[in-house]
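Good morning,

Both structures are done.
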Amino acid sequence: MRARSVRTSRHGEWTLTCAVGAVVLTLAVSGCSSSPSGPKAKDSAAKMSTDARWVAAKVRAGFKPLGVFTVTQDGTKAVSCGHGKASYSFAGHQSFRISSGGNYLDFTTVFGSSKLHDERGYDVDPDATRQDDEYTSYDTPLVNKKTGIHLTLRATASGEHATTELWTVTAHTDCLRAG
């Protein structure tokens, strides 16, 4: 028995070439490439920590701090999100004396929305859940969409006629690619 030769027509070769080209194009458009884009988790974590400390220094310079700015999470510990991604968190707090005519709750809003936008690229985060009320606390949730950082400034007083206020800054990165 003789083996039968298979002869491919020009039409068949053209169809195969088009099919391979379509698969390659589909993979390229759908994001299956060897060079992922967007910020790296560790880079955003470093910026997050720098930005949080920067805003704390600005607040300390303008008001009467009681003690030091205390960092409780420094933004260096990666938390795996799976699929080669990680997230980082930062938290710190500072107490201030409230003068009889002053209200730090207002300062947090003004400082947070203007300075952090102009100097660091943050905007008010419309998707964030706020936990403030009229007399005892005020949140300013911010986001830097370019770096995937969410930063919240929070001023909390112990009541309408409080003499001290606790100011906190918390931040976290989105789940970003590790590496």
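Second structure follows.
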Amino acid sequence: MMLDRRKPASEITPAYEDGGIFKNELVQLMVELVPLTAKNSRNDLIVKGFVDGNSAIEVVFPGRRKVQAKPVVALLQAKLTHARKVAARTGARVDVDTLRYPARIEGSWRPRFKRDDNGWETRQFQLFAARWILKDLNGKAITFGEMKVRE
């Protein structure tokens, strides 16, 4: 059994949390998010996205920022619900990867190692989001998240 060396939640400050999450330089990137979500072992929100058209990535909304990502999930779910209603009327199949919602994300790339079916480990990168900008239904840009806190 592995020893859990995490600090109790009451001892984690925003600066300590951000120091652990954003170890690399922050970048800004346009990402098209799709309504496919998951959670990791730390209960962070993971959303599938695409950059440069068809390069799939995982965007992680970590720690205290996952609560601030609820509007993202709501927008994506609304898009999926609408697509399912249209598909039910027309008899078409819903391709989740085509239901894209653009966002400008400021975050840090982190490697993730995955073992494939043959036992080989492959390295993929996840974008850990610090701040993100979405446009509302009226086209107004709204910023979510927060800047990286430094000690």
